[in-house]
């Protein structure tokens, strides 16, 4: 137990901008103790971004805050649950902006981070990664879009030549079928609402958000702050417990690696 000072007494379910700095102090302390080896991993609960910004502190989220603190140029978002590991090529972008955000260099770097962390932190020697196309039917040979032909397929081919076990680009509507998933270790979606609805249908309340690419291990819950439930005794802790258990496994794997 490490203490961080509150500015004002906390009341369950009530937001207070005066305590926004406290929230960031807890994150900073945990991350720095992971960096210096005091801790093997950190697990984050939900934060309310709005109240932190109301305090005059620019804050877009845990992941961006921790990436800056650990001086990590690129992170990868992956959710784990329901027998799936779904990683994302892009995260919180409007649909109209996604095609331009998917580039060869960006995909290559993201897949390299994903592959490395699956090896080092998930104990998978040669992870088999299913890669979704961007367009319906993975572009239908270019008739429904050329991103698969011009960007995704050449990137995958280059990485396969290095020995990576990459399958795709696959039509996203059949990627998550039982037959396709059999023998796979991870599913790589091109955008947020392509991959995460499937995972959350399979595991909501027990899923885990994992940030890949940082020098520290960080897991988190798959839900928001649920302020209406705070202090009622009706909170479900399944996702938090799953996040703790996964962080322990990842730390153990990394140490063994």
Strands of the widest sheet, in order across it, are 1-8-7-2-3-6-4-5
- In round numbers, the mean pLDDT is 95
DSSP summary: helix tally: 10
Structural class: alpha/beta
Stretches where pLDDT is under 50 for at least 5 consecutive residues are none
Order of SSEs: HEHHEEHHEHEHHEHEEH
List the helices and strands and how they pair.
Elements: H1 20-35, E1 42-44, H2 49-54, H3 62-69, E2 76-81, E3 84-88, H4 98-101, H5 104-122, E4 128-132, H6 147-160, E5 165-170, H7 172-175, H8 178-181, E6 186-189, H9 192-203, E7 208-212, E8 218-221, H10 238-256
Parallel strand pairs: 1-8, 3-6, 4-5, 4-6
Antiparallel strand pairs: 2-3, 2-7, 7-8
Structure description:
The chain has helices at residues 20-35, 49-54, 62-69, 98-101, 104-122, 147-160, 172-175, 178-181, 192-203, 238-256, and strands at 42-44, 76-81, 84-88, 128-132, 165-170, 186-189, 208-212, 218-221. The mean pLDDT is 95. It has an eight-stranded mixed sheet, sandwiched between helices. Helix 5 (104-122) packs across helix 6 (147-160). Strand 2 and strand 3 form a beta hairpin. The chain has ten helices and eight strands. The protein is α/β, with parallel strands linked by helices and 257 residues long. The chain is globular.
Describe the structure concisely:
By secondary structure, the protein is α/β, with parallel strands linked by helices. It contains ten helices and eight strands.
Keywords for this structure?
257 residues, alpha/beta, eight-stranded mixed β-sheet
